[in-house]
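Deliverable D2.4 — example input (structure tokens):
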């Protein structure tokens, strides 16, 4: 295991995408477990999905900050707004930056490509530039940023390893995430900025993203509509519970890749990429079956719900891949951690949250 070389206590930390699914949970964990001198969350709160969920997440962070007496500041701004990003870094002198803000979603990138260029490319460039200036002043110690399992694209070899070539993206979203890794590598090499990219694998859980399949399935089943299960139910996904993702992020935050020089005397890029996934892909049809059972248990669906009458097996759609499967060997070796939340346990927590947020069968 690697030793911790970044101390979070007493340091200013920036989390972009703080109103997002992973960002909110990360902020809450930092408030619970650490005493940062400043915890700043940034989000543009786009209407890509229900903003009420985003505002509720922010309310939870605010409440926790008040209860714990920790410093928390929320800033509504867009990553593509360079002046806003620059002023934020100048004001707070961040030591650790966690960039989770991005335009997410494979299918949305086909119909709304501009959003991905603005947020995922221009926005990430602005973060890198701000980190460069912060590092030059001896402030920024570690940049951690979200990548995605989508970068593996049409790779046939499984499980996916960070040693694999990832030059075959099948969506613009995947291409922007691979671009983030390349941009971070260039800045690590040129400016000696320690950076770590995290390839997340199908994150799910309470108060998650409504555009994710499990959330959409739940909405349709509750409304009595038919759900479409792509690739005739044969897709496999490495579903990863959000608490496992956050635990991995926090561990990675505390070890920045070591700065060292090569044989030519020039800096080697202090740069790493890790997979964070469950290392156990589940058949999508099995996933949906467990989801339905937990929705019945949580009384989101009636006990006699006819699941068979509400599902349709259909072909694969553009941008999707048949399987995602994380090789987490490097994460286990370096940080002694491997996601392990059982699928049923994670879906039960989601179903219980959904029942509370949207109401049980017959209540709404």
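Example output (designed residues):
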């Amino acid at each position: 295991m690697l030793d911790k070389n970044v101390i979070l206590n007493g340091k200013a930390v920036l989390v972009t995408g703080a109103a997002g699914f992973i960002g909110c949970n990360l902020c809450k964990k930092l408030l619970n477990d650490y005493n940062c001198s400043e915890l700043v969350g940034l989000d543009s709160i786009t209407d890509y999905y229900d903003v009420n969920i985003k505002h509720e997440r922010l309310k939870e962070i605010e409440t926790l900050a008040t209860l714990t007496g920790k410093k928390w500041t929320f800033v509504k701004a867009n990553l593509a707004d360079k002046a806003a990003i620059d002023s934020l870094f100048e004001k707070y002198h961040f030591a650790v930056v966690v960039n989770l803000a991005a335009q997410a979603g494979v299918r949305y990138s086909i119909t709304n490509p501009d959003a991905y260029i603005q947020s995922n490319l221009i926005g990430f460039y602005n973060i890198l530039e701000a980190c460069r200036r912060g590092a030059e002043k001896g402030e920024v110690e570690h940049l951690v940023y979200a990548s995605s399992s989508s970068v593996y694209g049409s790779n046939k070899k499984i499980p996916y390893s960070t040693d694999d070539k990832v030059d075959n993206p099948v969506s613009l979203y995947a291409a922007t995430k691979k671009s983030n890794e390349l941009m971070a590598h260039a800045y690590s090499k040129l400016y000696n900025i320690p950076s770590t990219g995290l390839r997340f694998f199908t994150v799910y859980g309470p108060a998650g993203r409504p555009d994710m399949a499990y959330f959409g399935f739940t909405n349709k089943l509750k409304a009595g509509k038919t759900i479409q299960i792509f690739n005739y139910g044969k897709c496999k996904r490495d579903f990863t519970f959000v608490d496992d993702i956050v635990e991995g992020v926090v561990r990675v935050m505390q070890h920045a890749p070591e700065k060292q020089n090569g044989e030519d005397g020039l800096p080697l890029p202090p740069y790493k990429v890790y997979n964070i996934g469950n290392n156990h892909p589940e058949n999508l049809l099995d996933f949906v079956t467990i989801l339905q059972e937990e929705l019945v248990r949580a009384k989101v669906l009636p006990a006699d719900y006819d699941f068979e009458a509400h599902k349709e097996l259909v072909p694969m759609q553009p941008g999707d891949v048949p399987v995602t499967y994380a090789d987490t060997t490097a994460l286990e070796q370096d940080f002694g951690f491997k996601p392990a939340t059982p699928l049923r346990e994670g879906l039960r927590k989601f179903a219980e949250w959904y029942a509370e947020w949207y109401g049980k069968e017959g209540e709404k």
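DSSP finds eleven helices and 15 strands in the chain.
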